[in-house]
Fold this sequence. Notes:
disordered N terminus; DUF2599; DUF2599 domain-containing protein; 4 strands; alpha+beta; 4 helices
Amino acid sequence: MAEQRRSRGALGGGVGVLVAVAVGLAVVRGSGPDSESDAGAEAGTATPTATATAPSLAAVAPGSAGGESGTGSDGTGARPTPGAPYCGSSRYVEEITLQRWAGGDFRISVWPTEEARHADDRDGASAEIWRAVQGCVGEVDPVVAESMQDQLRCHESLALIPGRGGEEYATGGSFDVESWRPTPGRRRWISTRCGNTLGTDPTSAPLATERPDGIPPQHRASGEHA
Protein backbone atom coordinates (compact mmCIF):
# COMPACT_ATOMS: atom_id res chain seq x y z
CA MET A 1 0.00 0.00 0.00
CA ALA A 2 1.49 3.31 -1.07
CA GLU A 3 2.68 5.51 1.75
CA GLN A 4 1.20 8.96 2.20
CA ARG A 5 3.23 11.92 1.10
CA ARG A 6 5.28 13.17 4.00
CA SER A 7 5.95 16.73 2.98
CA ARG A 8 3.78 19.62 1.82
CA GLY A 9 5.72 22.28 3.71
CA ALA A 10 7.40 25.52 2.96
CA LEU A 11 10.09 23.93 0.80
CA GLY A 12 10.55 21.22 -1.63
CA GLY A 13 13.26 15.57 -3.10
CA GLY A 14 18.89 4.84 -6.04
CA VAL A 15 21.22 2.89 -7.18
CA GLY A 16 20.63 -0.80 -7.83
CA VAL A 17 20.84 -3.50 -5.24
CA LEU A 18 24.00 -3.17 -3.13
CA VAL A 19 26.41 -6.05 -2.82
CA ALA A 20 25.07 -7.92 0.18
CA VAL A 21 28.36 -8.77 1.81
CA ALA A 22 29.84 -5.29 1.45
CA VAL A 23 26.70 -3.61 2.71
CA GLY A 24 26.49 -5.96 5.63
CA LEU A 25 29.97 -4.99 6.70
CA ALA A 26 29.10 -1.30 6.48
CA VAL A 27 26.03 -1.64 8.68
CA VAL A 28 27.95 -3.66 11.25
CA ARG A 29 30.04 -0.52 11.78
CA GLY A 30 26.93 1.25 13.10
CA SER A 31 26.72 1.63 16.86
CA GLY A 32 23.89 1.02 19.29
CA PRO A 33 21.25 -1.67 19.80
CA ASP A 34 19.54 -0.97 16.48
CA SER A 35 22.52 -2.19 14.46
CA GLU A 36 21.12 -5.71 14.01
CA SER A 37 20.74 -7.03 10.49
CA ASP A 38 17.57 -6.58 8.46
CA ALA A 39 16.76 -10.27 8.72
CA GLY A 40 13.49 -10.69 10.55
CA ALA A 41 13.57 -7.13 11.80
CA GLU A 42 11.19 -5.58 9.30
CA ALA A 43 8.47 -8.10 10.02
CA GLY A 44 8.36 -6.88 13.59
CA THR A 45 8.78 -3.20 12.76
CA ALA A 46 5.69 -1.14 12.10
CA THR A 47 5.74 1.04 9.01
CA PRO A 48 6.22 4.67 10.11
CA THR A 49 3.09 6.77 9.76
CA ALA A 50 3.43 9.79 7.49
CA THR A 51 2.40 13.06 9.06
CA ALA A 52 -0.90 14.56 8.01
CA THR A 53 0.21 18.13 8.57
CA ALA A 54 2.76 19.95 6.51
CA PRO A 55 6.26 19.92 7.98
CA SER A 56 8.08 23.19 7.65
CA LEU A 57 11.57 24.35 6.92
CA ALA A 58 12.46 27.90 7.84
CA ALA A 59 11.57 30.03 4.83
CA VAL A 60 14.76 30.04 2.86
CA ALA A 61 15.78 32.60 0.31
CA PRO A 62 19.35 33.48 -0.55
CA GLY A 63 20.88 35.02 2.54
CA SER A 64 17.91 34.32 4.85
CA ALA A 65 18.63 31.05 6.64
CA GLY A 66 19.73 31.17 10.24
CA GLY A 67 22.21 29.08 12.20
CA GLU A 68 25.92 29.19 12.83
CA SER A 69 28.15 29.36 9.83
CA GLY A 70 30.67 26.66 9.08
CA THR A 71 34.41 26.94 8.89
CA GLY A 72 35.98 27.07 5.48
CA SER A 73 35.84 28.81 2.13
CA ASP A 74 32.76 29.26 -0.01
CA GLY A 75 34.79 29.22 -3.19
CA THR A 76 34.83 33.01 -3.53
CA GLY A 77 37.13 33.84 -0.65
CA ALA A 78 34.29 35.63 1.18
CA ARG A 79 33.58 34.80 4.81
CA PRO A 80 29.97 34.56 6.04
CA THR A 81 28.83 37.01 8.67
CA PRO A 82 27.82 35.53 12.05
CA GLY A 83 24.31 34.09 11.89
CA ALA A 84 24.16 34.23 8.09
CA PRO A 85 23.59 31.02 6.11
CA TYR A 86 26.71 29.19 5.04
CA CYS A 87 26.61 26.29 2.58
CA GLY A 88 30.30 26.00 1.69
CA SER A 89 33.21 23.84 2.71
CA SER A 90 34.02 22.61 6.19
CA ARG A 91 35.69 19.53 7.68
CA TYR A 92 33.14 17.01 6.38
CA VAL A 93 31.32 19.06 3.74
CA GLU A 94 32.32 20.42 0.36
CA GLU A 95 28.97 22.03 -0.44
CA ILE A 96 25.28 21.90 0.49
CA THR A 97 22.48 22.63 -1.99
CA LEU A 98 18.71 22.80 -1.72
CA GLN A 99 16.07 21.73 -4.27
CA ARG A 100 12.44 22.87 -3.99
CA TRP A 101 9.24 21.49 -5.53
CA ALA A 102 5.93 23.26 -6.18
CA GLY A 103 4.07 21.23 -3.57
CA GLY A 104 6.45 22.16 -0.79
CA ASP A 105 8.73 19.11 -0.95
CA PHE A 106 12.46 19.66 -0.76
CA ARG A 107 15.75 17.79 -1.00
CA ILE A 108 19.01 18.71 0.68
CA SER A 109 22.17 17.46 -1.03
CA VAL A 110 25.46 17.29 0.85
CA TRP A 111 28.73 16.75 -1.02
CA PRO A 112 30.96 15.04 1.55
CA THR A 113 34.70 15.42 1.82
CA GLU A 114 37.02 12.43 1.68
CA GLU A 115 37.46 12.80 5.42
CA ALA A 116 33.71 12.33 5.83
CA ARG A 117 33.72 9.18 3.72
CA HIS A 118 36.61 7.70 5.71
CA ALA A 119 35.51 8.88 9.16
CA ASP A 120 36.10 6.38 11.98
CA ASP A 121 33.21 7.81 14.00
CA ARG A 122 30.32 7.64 11.55
CA ASP A 123 27.68 8.89 13.96
CA GLY A 124 29.90 11.78 15.03
CA ALA A 125 30.56 12.74 11.41
CA SER A 126 26.83 12.56 10.63
CA ALA A 127 26.05 14.85 13.56
CA GLU A 128 28.62 17.40 12.41
CA ILE A 129 27.29 17.27 8.85
CA TRP A 130 23.77 17.86 10.14
CA ARG A 131 24.94 20.94 12.03
CA ALA A 132 26.39 22.21 8.76
CA VAL A 133 23.03 21.55 7.08
CA GLN A 134 21.27 23.60 9.75
CA GLY A 135 23.78 26.40 9.24
CA CYS A 136 22.87 26.38 5.56
CA VAL A 137 19.09 25.93 5.44
CA GLY A 138 18.02 26.88 8.96
CA GLU A 139 15.76 24.89 11.28
CA VAL A 140 13.72 21.97 9.93
CA ASP A 141 10.42 20.71 11.34
CA PRO A 142 11.36 18.18 14.06
CA VAL A 143 9.51 15.24 12.47
CA VAL A 144 11.12 15.88 9.08
CA ALA A 145 14.49 16.50 10.72
CA GLU A 146 14.33 13.09 12.41
CA SER A 147 13.89 11.36 9.05
CA MET A 148 16.54 13.47 7.32
CA GLN A 149 19.11 12.81 10.03
CA ASP A 150 18.42 9.09 9.81
CA GLN A 151 18.82 9.16 6.02
CA LEU A 152 22.06 11.07 6.50
CA ARG A 153 23.42 8.55 9.01
CA CYS A 154 22.64 5.78 6.53
CA HIS A 155 24.48 7.53 3.69
CA GLU A 156 27.47 8.18 5.95
CA SER A 157 27.54 4.54 7.08
CA LEU A 158 27.50 3.34 3.46
CA ALA A 159 29.83 6.07 2.20
CA LEU A 160 32.54 3.69 0.95
CA ILE A 161 30.30 1.06 -0.68
CA PRO A 162 31.26 0.89 -4.38
CA GLY A 163 28.74 2.12 -6.92
CA ARG A 164 27.55 0.54 -10.14
CA GLY A 165 27.39 1.73 -13.71
CA GLY A 166 30.61 3.67 -13.52
CA GLU A 167 29.87 5.50 -10.27
CA GLU A 168 32.62 5.45 -7.68
CA TYR A 169 30.26 5.24 -4.71
CA ALA A 170 26.81 3.74 -4.17
CA THR A 171 25.72 7.01 -2.57
CA GLY A 172 26.71 8.90 -5.69
CA GLY A 173 28.74 12.05 -5.30
CA SER A 174 26.35 13.47 -2.71
CA PHE A 175 24.33 12.43 0.32
CA ASP A 176 20.74 13.30 -0.65
CA VAL A 177 18.02 13.54 2.02
CA GLU A 178 14.37 14.19 1.19
CA SER A 179 11.59 15.80 3.20
CA TRP A 180 8.84 13.39 2.15
CA ARG A 181 10.38 10.17 3.46
CA PRO A 182 9.30 8.47 6.69
CA THR A 183 12.18 7.63 9.02
CA PRO A 184 13.63 4.30 7.80
CA GLY A 185 15.47 3.33 11.00
CA ARG A 186 18.82 1.55 11.14
CA ARG A 187 17.32 -1.92 10.74
CA ARG A 188 15.71 -0.87 7.44
CA TRP A 189 18.63 1.03 5.94
CA ILE A 190 19.54 -1.78 3.58
CA SER A 191 16.10 -2.92 2.45
CA THR A 192 14.93 0.67 1.82
CA ARG A 193 18.25 1.93 0.43
CA CYS A 194 18.51 4.67 3.06
CA GLY A 195 14.78 5.35 2.80
CA ASN A 196 14.77 5.84 -0.97
CA THR A 197 11.95 3.31 -1.43
CA LEU A 198 9.74 5.08 1.13
CA GLY A 199 7.32 7.91 0.48
CA THR A 200 6.01 9.13 -2.87
CA ASP A 201 8.48 11.01 -5.02
CA PRO A 202 7.46 14.26 -6.75
CA THR A 203 6.41 13.70 -10.34
CA SER A 204 7.62 17.09 -11.56
CA ALA A 205 11.05 18.63 -11.87
CA PRO A 206 12.25 20.82 -8.99
CA LEU A 207 11.53 24.51 -9.24
CA ALA A 208 15.05 25.47 -8.25
CA THR A 209 18.42 24.16 -7.12
CA GLU A 210 20.20 26.72 -5.00
CA ARG A 211 22.46 27.55 -2.10
CA PRO A 212 20.60 29.53 0.57
CA ASP A 213 23.73 31.62 1.14
CA GLY A 214 23.23 33.11 -2.32
CA ILE A 215 26.34 31.62 -3.92
CA PRO A 216 25.86 29.71 -7.20
CA PRO A 217 26.10 25.93 -6.64
CA GLN A 218 29.43 24.38 -7.57
CA HIS A 219 27.96 20.87 -7.95
CA ARG A 220 24.99 19.55 -9.89
CA ALA A 221 22.43 17.60 -7.86
CA SER A 222 21.95 14.11 -9.28
CA GLY A 223 19.09 12.85 -7.11
CA GLU A 224 18.60 9.68 -5.13
CA HIS A 225 21.20 7.03 -4.49
CA ALA A 226 21.51 4.34 -1.86
